[in-house]
Amino acid sequence: MSGSKVWNDFNKELIDGEIKAVCKYCNRKFVGSSKKGTSHLKNHLQRCKVKKNVETHEKEMSICPETASIEGDFLFDNERSRLDLAKMITRLKCPLDVVEHESFQTFVKNLQLRFTPPSQDTLKADILRVYEEEKLKLQEYLGTLSCNFSLIMQFWTCHRTKNVYCCFAVQFLKDGLTLTKKILALRKVDRSEYHQGTLSFERVKSLLEEWNIDKKLCSITLRSSA
């Protein structure tokens, strides 16, 4: 890596086969090849509003040391915060590019200087990680139940992309009293399956075995499109 001090404020990443310089403050991407020099990177740092806000905040913290110690014994975990952000994005159904918006970057940096906002690609990976963690928790929970399950399958159509999906969910009586529903998966299906109102036996069998509920199943219901 180049010895230029400018690289203290950029990360080198391989994106779509090209070396990119990614600003540590605002996540903007620039040509990162050493053949292109670093003048364009230095120019960006002079204009980067997020960097300026961070420097202003650090100056204020140095002037008021009592503010700097407000965290006390709190241990900041950047990775945990990233996963919390991924959960928030999915629950609020926010667009993934919100993490690269300058206003969001400024807001986050003012809250916690040590938090590094993720790129869209990192956010996608974090969302998948959260999904796998939550899936494992649900699998373990369902495994502790002694009741039977009813599998509910319902077709969903995305009018924008014209794709068809099937939502797989289970219903069961929690503690023998409360009817409870948990979504297991949302899978893309062929339009022919949608029009025929059927799903292949192998598709359903594979899902039941994946969730280890094939021996506890008491009924299967296929509902019309939502």
TrEMBL record:
GO terms for molecular function: DNA binding; zinc ion binding. It comes from Carya illinoinensis (Pecan). InterPro entries: Znf_BED, ZnF_BED_domain_contain. PROSITE patterns: ZF_BED (PS50808). It is found in: Nucleus. It comes from the Eukaryota. Residues 1-64 form the BED-type domain. This is BED-type domain-containing protein. Keywords: Metal-binding, Nucleus, Transcription, Transcription regulation, Zinc, Zinc-finger. The keyword ATP-binding does not apply. GO terms for cellular component: nucleus. Its main location: nucleus.
